[in-house]
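Late entry, written up from scratch paper. The run itself happened at the end of the previous shift, but nothing got recorded in the book at the time, so transcribing now.
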Amino acid sequence: MNSAEIMPANYHETGVTRFKNNPFIEALPPLENSKSDYLVGLSNYPPIPTDKTRISSEIVRMMELSTLNDVVIPFPEYQKAAISLTTIMRDTYVARNPLTVQDRQRRHALASKGSDGLPFPANWKSSAKGHFMMAVSGMGKTTFAQAFLLRYPQVISHTSYQGQTLKCSQVVYVFLRVPHDATLKSLCIQFFSEIDRLLNTNYVRQARSVRQIGLMVQLMNEVATAVSLGFLIVDELQNLKSARGGTAEYVLNLFSEIIERLGISLLVLATPAVQTVIEGSVRNSRKLASYGETVLKPMLKNDPQWENFCDVYWDYSFVKNKGSLTKEIRNVWHKVSAGNTAFAALSFTLAQRNEIGGREVIDVASFERTAATDMAFLQPAIMALLSGRPDKLRAFDDLIFSEKYRSLRKLLGAKDDVEKQNAYEEFDDVIIEDKSPIKKLLRNNSFTQESTLFHERDLPMQDPFQM
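Output as recorded:
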């Protein structure tokens, strides 16, 4: 993968008292002026097809159908989540202002690995928070996160601030996915691989040699400090239900460490299937949602949100005869999609693909035929959504994540967000049957005590005392 574009720091005063004179916060894009700005910023409406487009050749219009994949309608819940993320990705740097004495001591203690006796500041307290977003697959969790992050540079380069030398790189965010095998080491290696991609470093080489969770947490702390990481997005948390042994609990503990000890804010994305994973870990669940949670639910048939969704998508009709959007069409459209945004977009796309070169019109029969043929294998999942039963929704992932569904989306030009990741051996600690020692190591991990374990590691830590 190519390295990310590194943007030079351009500082903006925020007007927020606790953000004042903090270069890491002031280097981020200016704050929005109003709540409505978030909805505008998160939306994306490609050019609407014209009458001229609708008389183009059949093949041209079928190719144009991929345009529907680019439509992003900002739900009201997006606004709430966007405000939360705007806050926590700045709050994370409040306790890590590189100009404060306390943070300079924290960084120096990590950079020197305790060799000169300067301890990690005992009164340092993380200002990071967590936000939890849950929805069934296809409701736009990942779409929201990606749209939100578009206006943020991923890497910022600092050279000086208010006349003071400040030479460092700031990685604003890193996006991770819990692998399907749910191995903790795979997730950690993914973190270091992403840092290497962004900065053209080689941390992953050192990370692969780590065999214990406590040591990996320490290494992540050192690297996160080295790159001034502010925000971590973790997608597909429900994959932890496939974890063996106590791995799921270890991962949740790790996320708590990231917030509490590394001082990095966290956004976690998951489907209802995650409830079986987190219901037994109240403390970790509370930490992951320390700055609230957002739940995206399928749209109801008579809800204004569904009306708006249909209105927007109907404008992207590529059949020659764009008819009126009747109540009957809206109702059958909802019936075949259960108000799930991905299913609704898919059914409309497939209906048009079937009608282009044929009847050249979209009506009730178009949706019914599409549901009975192209989307027949999705009917159990759609029925589960329409039922609204929690037990059915928890099984929803297993109903739709088939190779046939992925192939169908790929055929229509939709990007498959599920990326294959390399499998790695698990940590030795996870394989151990007795889990208490590793819990103790994770919870009682001391930065200064374990720092000697990394004396031989060549990590480019930025020592503020040497700037």
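The beta strands are 6-8, 130-135, 155-161, 164-171, 173-177, 231-235, 265-270, 293-296.
(Scratch paper discarded after transcription.)
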